[in-house]
């Protein structure tokens, strides 16, 4: 099944089930994260679909909000694509490089990304893994069983801020700059060990392409590893890293301009399309 | 005024106002973070104290919970004490080194700190700044006016995990390892530019001593800087960095042992006293 968080009105959202290509069946939960917090979420959605008495919104009439607007944890992995690491002449890491961001970073699949005060806005197309149950010091098998599903994300990064210090957080945690969506596709729709094709475009030009089959630390391994030090809960999300082709790695470096269209797609899940808006001079922080 | 979050029963807490040295006046909010989310929190507490019809719990009968158990953001600054940076032969930084953790890291002022799977647990005595109002791209003056108050913290760090990769997050984000308390002392009790004496002890031996007057980035500057990229809200907390004397910096390095007592004190605020408990071999993550 495919689950989405739809905007209704100005400040409200609802969870919904994608019904074919036609539309969304509204579910009585404010967003997908709250839905996943129900231990019976699968049965709950199945029953709602079978009853068929909920409103169906045509896909064209629905606006997608951030999939998990209230995620407790948004944990990201860097340096995770083996082919990209090896082509850069580096050795494969023994441990995942992890950093944290907050749910304030998240926006919807079609939202514009409004950046204040950065002049080097870069792209990082990524597979997002959504947690479906509580994990504390879990094994890989326990972690695999707790994956609710997958979504598409782009860990849009403000490289000037990221490179001001050794810690990446400040360049990664700008509010409303990380699109997450368009839907969560439940894990049962993919065979174990399935590799996802991840692609990113800028104004229609393909700039990134990788397959999560080459991840050094796959989804279950990442969730297990993180759960050794912090509890993961339903609705938390882990971004699995980005393949080669980011703007910072080009010669000369290339960054996003005001008005650019950033597209991110994963086969079997869907596509994000976000316009970049860059606002300068507003802040007093630098 | 001094505000605390007290444990009542197994899984419940309440905000409270410290009344002299005698006890705590219970306030109708589940914790200090929720209290600060009321725009009228100061008037609310003042009115409750004046009414005097709430229960007063003797200090000896109250157990302190993490001051802000549901903080939306716990943002930490590293490398911030000028005297320590200069004595290490480094240059003063142009920008604060920031990293994030989650509220799951927080414990109360007298709680034991249960560490699973680390063999190099280190101390970092710190002043915590508690946010009292929403800040988005705020000036230093706006940030100063939005400081609710100050508390004591210890950014207990698992150095083995911290040094596995370039990003510190995984060594800093262990659940239930960051004591925060014992109380929030409101900002009006300190003059502008006040420097706090920060001290840390291990089993009664003084191991750290600094004064926040030597911070490169003071409380208001840090809040303003962070608010340029992410919104800070009432109940969020910023840890301002630690002075010299951490275990990792000693020759040879020195780490905490199972059973050690870690004490952290700031003049005018109070003292944390936490026993370290180290559990090995439980995890599968390494």
Structural notes for this entry:
The structure is a homodimer of 286-residue chains. By secondary structure, chain A is of the alpha+beta class. Chain A has two domains: 2-64, no CATH class; 74-279, Alpha-Beta Complex (Fumarylacetoacetate hydrolase, domain 2), CATH 3.90.850. Chain A is 16% helix and 35% strand. In chain A, strands 1, 2, 3, 4, 5, 6, 7, 8, 11, 12, 14 and 17 form a twelve-stranded mixed sheet that branches. The longest helix of chain A has 11 residues, at 41-51. Chain A is globular, with a radius of gyration of 18 Å. At the A-B interface, β7 and α7 of A face β7 and α7 of B.
- The computed structural class of chain A is alpha+beta
What sort of overall outline of chain A do the alpha carbons produce when their principal axes are compared? globular
Structural Rg of chain A: 18 Å
CATH class designation of the largest domain in chain A: Alpha Beta
Task: List the defining traits of the structure above.
12-stranded mixed sheet, homodimer, alpha+beta, 286 residues
Summarize the structure.
The structure is a homodimer of 286-residue chains. By secondary structure, chain A is α+β, with helices and mostly antiparallel strands.
């Amino acid at each position: 099944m495919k689950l989405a968080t739809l905007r209704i009105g100005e400040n409200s959202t609802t969870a919904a089930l994608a019904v074919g290509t036609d539309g969304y069946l509204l579910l009585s939960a404010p967003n997908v994260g709250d839905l996943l917090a129900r231990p019976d979420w699968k049965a709950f959605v199945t029953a709602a679909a079978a009853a068929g008495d909920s409103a169906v919104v045509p896909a064209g009439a629905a606006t997608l909000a951030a999939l998990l607007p209230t995620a407790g944890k948004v944990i990201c992995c860097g340096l995770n694509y083996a082919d990209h690491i090896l082509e850069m002449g580096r050795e494969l890491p023994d441990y995942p490089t992890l950093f944290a961001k907050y749910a304030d970073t998240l926006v919807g699949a079609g939202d514009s990304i409004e950046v204040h005060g950065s002049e080097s806005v870069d792209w990082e197309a990524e597979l997002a893994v959504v947690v479906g149950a509580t994990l504390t010091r879990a094994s890989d098998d326990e972690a695999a069983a707790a994956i609710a599903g997958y979504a598409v994300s782009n860990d849009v990064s403000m490289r000037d801020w990221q490179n001001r210090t050794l810690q990446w957080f400040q360049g990664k945690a700008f509010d409303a700059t990380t699109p997450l969506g368009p839907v969560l596709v439940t894990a049962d729709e993919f065979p174990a060990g399935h590799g996802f094709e991840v692609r990113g475009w800028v104004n229609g030009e393909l700039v990134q392409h990788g397959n999560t089959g080459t991840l050094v630390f796959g989804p279950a391994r990442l969730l297990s590893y993180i759960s050794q030090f912090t509890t993961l809960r339903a609705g938390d999300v882990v971004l699995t890293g980005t393949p080669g082709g980011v703007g910072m790695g080009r010669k000369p470096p290339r960054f996003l301009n005001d008005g650019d269209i950033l597209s991110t797609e994963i086969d079997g899940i869907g596509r994000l399309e976000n316009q970049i808006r860059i606002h300068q001079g507003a802040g007093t922080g630098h």
